[in-house]
Write a sequence for this structure.
């Protein structure tokens, strides 16, 4: 039992030393990276989305360096803030100089098939100089509540180990050799900011044809003489086929020589589609022999301003017997 | 052997290595935490989203027509041929987040031509947000087709032209993965539309275009 316990301790000791060595190497790399970043003014960013993939997958850490907006060129990957303050890291596809040393940058994610909605007008931009895939995941995880707890526990454990009683010296003795490194790390905080590198998608819903009706004229009316009782009720009757149930017809009786409108009206509203529209032209008892034209124009019942571009003209005449007993007949004299 | 011992004194000492290990914790931890502080209101520092962003749309929930990146869906039921003034058509469009990340979306309306544009008395598009149904009455023969939207809020009224309208939403709403939003689109020819818009002697025809754009939501 004793032997096995010693072996266990030996294994645990070796594993612990191995972990400690790996941790020390990684920790040193982190510290070096932090120092380089601070000295060169380089800032790390976590890519929260994959809109720059496959160039930069989600969860990568990118390193950016601030440059004047006028130095930005098409093809660069830059990180800027949008109007709502979110950081967006996308590729520059267009650069338009604006007033006051500002530049309007049009950006597009490599994985997006459309540019970002609005150009970003900026005076400076953070240009991407390097990126490391995957590294963002542990950093991002460490900032979750659980990650913070784990982080705190590990830090407490390591600090406890560092400042434990020294068995060799047999007394409480603080090992200060590593402290400057810790202090330096605390001082050299890297401000890793999340960057969205938005994904975007845009599509189009298109209607089918939306088109208006064209108001079409009726065919040339047929004119027939219809006789009443004796000559008193003789009229000219015009008929034509109803063009559309939505139509009515405005007509005018126009004096052929003077152009004056003798009378006018509307017919056809309510006639079923394909039915026959009838217009009777009659007159009072008194009148002289005169030639007239009946001009008929089709239009919509509901919107009477929508009219057929052409009209039909039908010649008619008033025929009187000694001034009285006037009648209408088809055609001119 | 002597050099080895000397090396062990510096790097090999457990405490030194432990302190150096603490470097990882501090650099990663502090940087990550700092990110969390700076944008805690808008950015959850723990969320890295890979995967896809795909806004789809269809006439009903579950029949997505506008799939994948970009694309055009011709909604054949959204049509109004041979129309006269005051006729309208209403149809439902269900927008769905079919990707794997939350998104915000917005929409503008336009027409492919200006054939039916006439100030504020031409072709008009109205969108009712979160409407439950679109209704349709009347016949083309009678010239009294009328579309309606049941429920919802009239969010956009646009006299359409080739220049896109204002955004449907002042603040783009968020759709979680799988979430849908029902829109009722009403296309109406103004009752005061002038005679110049009719199709005789020149055909006046267009298509309504709804440009739907989605952006990954930062929640």
């Amino acid at each position: 039992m004793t032997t096995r316990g010693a072996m266990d301790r030996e294994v645990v000791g070796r594993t612990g030393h191995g972990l400690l060595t790996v941790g020390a190497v990684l920790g040193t790399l982190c510290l070096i990276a932090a120092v380089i970043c601070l000295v060169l003014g380089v800032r790390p960013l976590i890519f929260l989305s994959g809109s720059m993939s496959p160039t930069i997958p989600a969860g990568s850490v990118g390193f950016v360096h601030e440059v004047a907006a006028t130095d930005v060129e098409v093809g660069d990957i830059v990180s800027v803030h949008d109007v709502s303050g979110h950081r967006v890291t996308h590729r520059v596809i267009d650069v338009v100089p604006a007033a006051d040393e500002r530049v309007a940058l049009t950006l597009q994610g490599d994985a997006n098939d459309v540019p970002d909605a609005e150009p970003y007008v900026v005076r400076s931009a953070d240009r991407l100089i390097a990126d490391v895939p995957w590294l963002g995941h542990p950093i991002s995880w460490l900032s979750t509540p659980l990650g913070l707890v784990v982080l705190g526990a590990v830090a407490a454990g390591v600090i406890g180990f560092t400042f434990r009683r020294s068995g060799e010296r047999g007394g409480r003795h603080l090992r200060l050799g590593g402290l400057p490194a810790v202090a330096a790390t605390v001082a050299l905080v890297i401000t890793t900011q999340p960057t969205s590198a938005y994904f975007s998608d845009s599509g189009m819903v298109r209607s089918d044809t939306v088109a208006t009706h064209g108001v079409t004229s009726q065919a040339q009316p047929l004119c027939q003489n219809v006789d009443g009782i004796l000559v008193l009720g003789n009229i000219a009757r015009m008929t034509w086929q109803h063009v559309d149930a939505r139509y009515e017809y405005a007509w005018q009786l126009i004096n052929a020589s003077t152009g004056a409108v003798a009378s006018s009206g509307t017919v056809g509203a309510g006639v079923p589609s394909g039915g026959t529209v009838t217009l009777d032209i009659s007159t009072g008892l008194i009148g002289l022999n005169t030639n007239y034209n009946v001009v008929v124009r089709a239009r919509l019942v509901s919107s009477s301003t929508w009219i057929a571009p052409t009209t039909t003209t039908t010649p008619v005449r008033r025929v009187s017997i000694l001034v009285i007993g006037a009648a209408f007949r088809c055609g001119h004299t | 052997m002597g050099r080895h011992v000397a090396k062990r004194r510096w790097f090999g000492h457990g405490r030194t290595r432990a302190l150096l290990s603490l470097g990882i914790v501090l650099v990663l931890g502090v940087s990550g935490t700092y990110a969390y502080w700076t944008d805690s209101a808008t950015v959850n520092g723990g969320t890295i989203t890979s995967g896809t962003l795909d806004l789809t749309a269809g006439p009903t929930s579950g029949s997505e027509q506008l799939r994948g990146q970009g694309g055009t869906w011709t909604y054949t039921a959204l049509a109004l041929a041979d129309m006269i003034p005051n006729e309208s058509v209403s149809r439902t469009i269900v927008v769905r987040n079919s990707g794997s990340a939350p998104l915000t979306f917005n929409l503008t309306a336009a027409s492919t031509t200006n054939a039916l544009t006439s100030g504020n008395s031409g072709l008009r598009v109205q969108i009712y947000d979160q409407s439950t149904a679109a209704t349709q009455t009347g016949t083309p023969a009678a010239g009294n087709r009328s579309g309606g939207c049941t429920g919802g809020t009239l969010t956009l009224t646009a006299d359409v032209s080739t220049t896109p309208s204002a955004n449907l939403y002042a603040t783009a709403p968020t759709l979680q993965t799988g979430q849908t939003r029902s829109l009722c689109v009403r296309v109406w020819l103004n009752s005061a539309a002038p005679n110049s818009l009719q199709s005789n002697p020149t055909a006046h025809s267009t298509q309504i275009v709804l440009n739907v754009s989605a952006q990954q939501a930062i929640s």
Notes: The radius of gyration of chain B is 28 Å.
